[in-house]
Amino acid sequence: MKNLMLNILKAHNIVKNAEAIIITAGAGMGVDSGLPDFRGNEGFWKAYPPIAKLRYDFTQMANPALFTYNPKLAWGFYGHRLNLYRSTIPHDGFKLLFDLVNQKDNNYFVFTSNVDGQFQKAGFDEDEIYEVHGSIHYLQCTKTCTESIWENNLGDIEIDMDKLEAQTLPRCKNCKELARPNILMFGDGEFINGRADEQNERFHNWRFQNKDKKIVIIEVGAGSAIPTIRSFGDRLSGFENDVTLIRINPREDEVYNDGDIGIALDGLEGIKKVYYGND
Length: 279
Hints:
The chain is an alpha/beta fold. The chain has one domain (about 1-275): Rossmann fold (3-Layer(aba) Sandwich), CATH 3.40.50.1220. Helices cover about 40% and strands about 15% of the residues. The protein is built from 11 helices and 11 strands. Strands 3-2-1-9-10-11 form a 6-stranded parallel sheet, sandwiched between helices. The protein has a 3-stranded antiparallel sheet with strand order 5-4-8, with helices on one face.
């Protein structure tokens, strides 16, 4: 407990003295908003009982092949997630982070593996967000008839929840073949990365503009099972001067670079502690 208190105070002071902020987030960021993080098969199947009956794991469901051999189930899964994300209100931690970046004259960037669009909903600038795995709020053609990506302006997807099957299937706006979310899935050779590449370019331009500034990375809910976010934070704080990582994670708060700080708390609670500087 003493170490946690000290880490909270250190993190608070580092954020206070930082000139720019990078917010990095994994699935754990959304848990306090009521979103599932799909931790292990049991957690995944608890969130989706029809999938438990099929004994499919997350890697089988989040797979482009599913849109070929079972499109109704594929869109049942992604349609339910789309409906859920649209109806979810971001928790108060988003508001606190938004307030922090406002204190830095909005000199920030968000780097997230989440596809839910919760940062945009919480008020963060679309041009200051890099969604490394894409977004469920954008679509592409399953046949990649073009490199086109378009915003998903369809209404909520009607789903038979007993079977987790979509009753209607979104279509490509160009060729009318089946559409899919513009999300990087497992074993995905068809992901159209144009939008993600543009976000990546904006992020690197931002990094260049802030190369001489004191930067803090606030990482929330990023696990090691899919280490995209954790690896990014470790790499950046390890090789860049004046970059400090604050890792908020209830189970995997370990840090590896001198000066980085781990805080073993859930996302919302950890953000509050870092923001207010107390336990």
